[in-house]
Amino acid sequence: MGTYVVIGAGLAGAATAWHLAGRGHEVTVLERSVPANGEGSSHGSARILRYGYPDPFYVRLVVEARAEWDGLERLSGERLISGTGSLDFGAGRDPAALAALFEEAGVEHELLTSADATERWPGFRFGSDVDGDSGVLWHPAAGVIDPEAAVSAMLRLARADGARVETGWPVAAVERAGAGHRVLAADGRREEAEKVVVTAGGWLPGLLGALPLPRAFLDALPPIQVMEENAYHFPYRDGAGEAWPTFIHKDAGMLVYGLPGGRDAALPDGRTGLKIAEYNGGRPIRSAAARTGRIDPANRRRITGYVRRTLPGLVPEPYAETTCLFTNTPTEDFVIDGVGGVTVASPCSGHGAKFAPLLGRIIADAASGERPAPEPFRVA
Ligand SMILES: Cc1cc2nc3c(=O)[nH]c(=O)nc-3n(C[C@H](O)[C@H](O)[C@H](O)COP(=O)(O)OP(=O)(O)OC[C@H]3O[C@@H](n4cnc5c(N)ncnc54)[C@H](O)[C@@H]3O)c2cc1C
């Protein structure tokens, strides 16, 4: 059995620690703040689990990930996903092409006309797209993940298998020490381990230069761009809103997603609303440390206008707003690869949450040398 340090306790780090500890390895998780903290990407109560991807590789990956989520829910005894179903619409989303991929992968779905979909979900105005009416795809297996609960469940299971989770432990550098590694904090604290897994989210660009990775590996990494994204919560007109599905709408180059916002933001009377954001509608920043927490007023106007045009079931005035971090690669593929006992995992690009427990398995396989990550995640 090996010894591992996992840097970062977001969804990726928690899932990796859970899988490594479950295999009998000695695992220490070092987290600069607290698990699933609000400065990273895995905080709050709401991420979409949807199967709609234009690439069959990812559709299959969601099917596999769902089985891992079911296993995690069973093991932890917690409900981590609420079923909502999901709608895909807009010519840019190509609902018919997604339906063909669902057919191949055995994902239950219905392809509806915009008129039929409007009757069923009157809170939406379908079919008024600039790019024409391309119908609406419904898949009932989609849902909303509670990322904070998932992180804490996976860390609890990791601890039960002997993992140690250190909070307030910012890793400043990793160096080689004999056949293994020494992980250093700026205040002189240190940890030794044979292998190191870096799951540092939006802090990765700032940490890469302090890792003992060969120049050739660093040069082959895809460029990693951190985005400070904007998200808004809108009230339901009818007050309730439990039946709202998640959705992805792409038209005229604008990709918008929405989901029941859960406990992330509540109205003064305790009711919650729909969380809506433009995918990659934020601004690029150097690294997580450069985050401002400021909403872009132009983005707020774009989204409010969008809600007014497309979602008549919502009051077009956000009652809460927030920023958060995407850590993007140009292709939106994840990075999971390493060399010499240091594995770098950057499974974000704004869509990594739904795969978390499966990614933990894939990262643990790659880090332990049992199996390399799937080809799209490997560094050339
Ligand atoms: C607003 C928003 C909406 C999203 N929506 C969806 C969605 O609907 N569906 C979906 O599938 N995905 C979604 N995602 C993406 C998903 O949430 C991310 O893929 C996932 O949270 C990434 O997790 P992570 O562990 O890689 O990063 P993080 O959660 O950021 O974790 C990294 C951790 O590392 C710690 N850390 C960093 N540097 C150090 C250091 N030097 N030493 C110690 N610790 C360190 C940080 O404090 C942090 O806790 C969304 C993301 C955001 C932000």
TrEMBL record:
InterPro entries: FAD-dep_OxRdtase, FAD/NAD-bd_sf, MTOX
Ranges for domain FAD dependent oxidoreductase: 4-365
The entry's keywords: FAD, Flavoprotein, Oxidoreductase
Pfam families: DAO
Cofactor(s) recorded in Swiss-Prot or TrEMBL: FAD
SUPFAM superfamilies according to UniProt: FAD-linked reductases, C-terminal domain (SSF54373), FAD/NAD(P)-binding domain (SSF51905)
Domain of life: Bacteria
Tagged with keyword Flavoprotein: yes
PANTHER family for the chain: FAD DEPENDENT OXIDOREDUCTASE DOMAIN-CONTAINING PROTEIN, PEROXISOMAL SARCOSINE OXIDASE
Protein name per UniProt: FAD-dependent oxidoreductase
Source organism per UniProt: Actinomadura fibrosa
